[in-house]
Amino acid sequence: MKTKTILSILTAAVLALSVTACSTEQGTGQASGETSKETESAGETAPADDSGSAQAAAKVLIMPKLVGIPWFNASDVGAMRAGEEIGIEVVYAGPTQPDAAEQVKMIEDYLNQGIDAICIAANDPTALKPVLNTARDMGILVMDWDTPADIEDVDYSVQSVDPTEYGEALWDYMVKAMGAEEGQYAILTGGLEAAALNMWIDAGREYAKEKYPNLELVTEPIATNEQQQEAYSRTLDLIKTYPDLKAIVAVSTPAPIGAAQAVQEKGLQDQIAVVGGVLPNDANQYLKDGSLDYGVVEANPELLGYATAKIAAMALNGEKIEDGALIEGVGNITVYENGKTIVLGPPLIIDANNVDEYDF
Amino acid sequence: MKIQWKKIFNQKYTNALIVVMLFLLFSIATDAFFTFENMSDVLKSYAVLGILSCGMLPIIISGGIDVSIGAIISACACVMALFMKNVSSNLLLAFVVSALFGALLGAINGLLISLLKIQPLVVTLGTYSIINGCMIYLTNGSWITEIPDNLISFGRMRPLGIPIQTIFFLLVGLLTMFLLRHTLWGRGVYAIGGDEVSAERIGYKPGWIKFLLYVYFGFLAGIAAVVHTSIMSQVDPNAFKGYEMTIISAVVLGGVNIAGGFGSIFNVVVGVLFLAITYNGLILMKVSSYWQNIIVGAIMLIAIAADTIKKKREEAEKTVVDVEYKEG
Q1: Which helix (H) or strand (E) holds B59?
Q2: I need a surface site. Which of A62, A128, A168, A192 has the fewest CB within 10 A?
């Protein structure tokens, strides 16, 4: 870690030399990231090739929204693990920024190199439409995972959790943390316009109407601009506005942390329950000091990467993927009526006791 | 009475007047707004914005802009956190390391802008990308947690009941005010913002002044990084994505001309207070969040429209003078 500190100071010196390098920097950074990933996967799959029969190993491209963030690093590990287990070549590569145009370029490159399947976490379904259709016309299996593309453009869509199920889980665990089925609560969200977050919130609110009629939502969801400091200030505001507030449910990963922090600072850990979608590494200290009660995580990203690679291999083998089928190492999957959308299972619940088991 | 109103409007205080009106409105409409607890919470949460706006102000006065600041403060926060965790948890050293690192990154912006005379927007867009890229590479985008306790307890200090972060904002504000008013550099900032060529003719050195502008902003970003981490108690490398826009809006909403030439710390205080109290007050008034954005947008437009109308009038007066002079 010490070297990282020195490194970061050294990079500053390097910056001084890279006068006109602003555009090239991104290009090379990404290219080098790609090659390292490729050599890595080539190295891992080489033994499989040797031991394999005359038939060459299938080559599956798994593309995250971006590389270099913990979530997608964990998927990388899972995808590689699946590749090793079943003896297919998994290439895990993506842009350094969540940029659909970059994804299109990279997919085109891989199409030229020859590939059997593409699994994409789509940054923009519309922008990816043409290239995904080109791939399908070439007879390549096209799937999406994590973040869906247009359902028309893919053969399968691997999703971590059903939005309704996720929303319901959030509310269930909020009630569990409150210890009562009545009381005032508020909702923090990443942004009022974020469709995925709205789906969870709407599902949870509908569910609460039926199951927990005595819960009282004090105000419409409050936007935090996907930032911890906003969630922190807005929670301080909420605590003052609604002195009887019993719980906060927060979606968008930095929001529960900011809320927990405000609650902890005011010493209200025992009065106000905080639950929400978080990453275990970030939530660790707040789960342990009691200001955050439960983290409801969409999926274990390692498992998501693993399942995506496995499902791709199954589809390439011509295996039928059916509702309720048991995938080894994943569990029973749900397949929607459209025959394409595959949902892995219930969300991952983390609390003070199990948070140390996960590293993402 | 009438004359006094006119005076208030004419002395660039329109936006301040709007802030005062909002302040009164919130104080009357809610019990929780004008309390010591709420005021100190709000000023604590917005201290980082305040410190950074103090750095952006001289740059905007000089006619420049810095959009790399979000990346610089994140970089400072990461370096500072890694330093505290791995080298020394001394708080003073943490401030020094963070401020020096910020000043160094600012110096890179400053050198490119003053020596190569590239547009500030272009330079800082480039450095934003580079610094951000390096940070994501070094941290993998993960948060840095388990910051030493002394920083956290420092962040909870409240001398005389005032949050320590607010005191930093106050000190930085005073320092910036002093630099702008009483140093040759400060006067030079106004001069080159008004007209760079004339400023150079009367003896100012625009290159040197610009270089120091960006170094100063970097230095403040370093200070702000420690102040921010003392509240948040962990470092999120992505926490300041898009933050440059919030800083610029604070400065401009306070009444500073985005084209440069004039502005003061007073404007920064007005702009920061505006952003700080509107969302706070609207939530306390139990206004639905869908309406909040609409109301905030409307107030902003009113503030800026008032400002622009006032300036148009002033310009119209100037034109008359010009014509008369030519005829004479």
Answers
A1: helix B47-61
A2: A192
Same domain as A238, residue A134: no
Q: How far apart are CA A65 and CA A147, in angstroms?
A: 8
A64 with A129, same domain: the answer is yes
The C-alpha angle A3, A4, A10, rounded to 5 degrees, equals 90
Give the total number of structural domains in chain A.
Answer: 2
Choosing among B27, B135, B137, which should be mutated to test the A contact, i.e. which has the most A CBs within 10 A? B137
- A358 occurs within a structural domain: no
Say how far apart CA A196 and CA A157 lie, in whole Å. Answer: 16
**Residue A138 shares a structural domain with residue A92:** yes
Average pLDDT (A107-122) is 94
Query: How many separate helices (H) and strands (E) can be counted in chain A?
Result: 11, 16
Q: Answer yes or no: is pLDDT of B190 > 80.
A: yes
Measure the CA angle with vertex B263, ends B258 and B268; round to 5°.
Answer: 90
Is 0.85 exceeded by the ipTM?
no
- 8 Å CB contact of A8 and B75: yes
Our measurement of the distance from residue A16's CA atom to the centroid of its chain's CA atoms, rounded to an integer in Å, reads 36
Determine which of A2, A8, A30 to mutate to test the interface with B (most B C-beta atoms within 10 Å). Answer: A8
Q: Which residues of B137-166 are buried (b: 16+ CB within 10 A; e: fewer)?
A: bbbebbbbbebbeebeebbeeeeeebbbbb
Tokens at residue B311, please? Answer: 């300036």
| A118: nearest Cα among A99, A101, A131, A102 | A131
Task: Give the residues across from A250 on adjacent strands.
Answer: A188, A276
Task: Please check whether residue B131 touches A, CB under 8 A.
Answer: yes
CA separation, residue A77 to residues A97, A120, B77, B146, B263 (Å): 20, 16, 29, 25, 53
Instruction: Inform me whether the pLDDT recorded for A192 exceeds 90.
Output: no
Domain span holding position B249? 36-283
